[in-house]
Amino acid sequence: MSKDDRKIAAEDPLWASIREEVAREAKSEPILAGFLNATILNHSTLESSLSFHLAGKLATPGLPSKLLREVFEEAMKKSPPIREALRADIEAIRERDPACRGYFEPLLYFKGLHALESYRMAHWLWEQGRVSLALYLQNQISERFGVDIHPAARLGSGIFIDHGTGVVIGETAVVEDHVSMLQEVTLGGTGKEEGDRHPKVRHGVLIGAGAKILGNVEIGEGAKVGAGSVVLDDVPPHSTVAGVPAVVVGEPDVAEPALAMDHRLRSHHEKGGGI
């Protein structure tokens, strides 16, 4: 290991692991060597790599990647929480997704992560009062990645958006740390209400594919929402809900279903009690 590699490993172990993985990939798949060098190996930091990669995906003729990359680098430089969340999000995918073979894969190929980290830039812009640019990013994220997250929504860290396609998160939604959700999840409103009108998803919640959670309802800590459910009322902490409309059908086997990623529904009866 070179002196520079040892320094990177000491300062940012996750980035060092990504570089090691990508160096092996470049040798095993030479046709991708140019791409892997441009996106990963030519960069000294994870932030530089991410800004280069996302800017290339979200640029348009009217806003070229060079300018967009400068915006992303400014956001990450001025907002330590963005940098911390990026690492927690990558770790979450590596730990929770059995299809993920290394830390480099979500960074390069998983559009759920791409949409999430791009949202984080848009959210920073929104909080700086740069509303038009934030909305530009929301539009581009939706078009390129199939994920529509309003830049005013508040998302924590360690978030896993699996597959990503069709996910919609509204303006006043809140998603706390260590939440997992699958494709076609909606955290939306119920009509034309104004003000605080979107769901509040607490720590450790697991939301199954196609679930629709509508209105200013609270999904309690450690709850599980079954695939295809329509949730219109508050969900108690550490309970499992399913159906249309969703009702309590049991409780998860673990305190944080988002980490276990077990979408099976288990009733109180199956656990030895009554529903």
Question: Counting H and I runs of at least 4 residues, what is the number of helices?
Answer: 10
Shape verdict:
globular
Instruction: Provide the CATH topology of the largest domain.
Output: serine acetyltransferase, domain 1
Strand content: 5-15%
Looking at this structure, what is the CATH superfamily of the largest domain?
Answer: serine acetyltransferase, domain 1
Q: Could you tell me the radius of gyration in angstroms?
A: 20 Å
Please report the distance between the alpha carbons of the first and last residues.
Answer: 59 Å
Q: How many DSSP-defined strands? A: 15
Given the helix and strand composition, which structural class is it?
Answer: alpha/beta
- Which residues sit in consecutive blocks of at least 5 with pLDDT less than 50? none
What is the element string, with H for helices and E for strands?
A: HHHHHHHHHEEEEEEEEEEEEEEEH
Total domains? 2
CATH classification class of the largest domain? Mainly Alpha
Q: Helical percent range?
A: 40-55%
Mean pLDDT: 94
Largest sheet: 6 strands, mixed
Question: What is the architecture of the largest domain at the second tier of CATH?
Answer: Orthogonal Bundle
Strand order of the largest sheet: 3-6-9-12-14-15
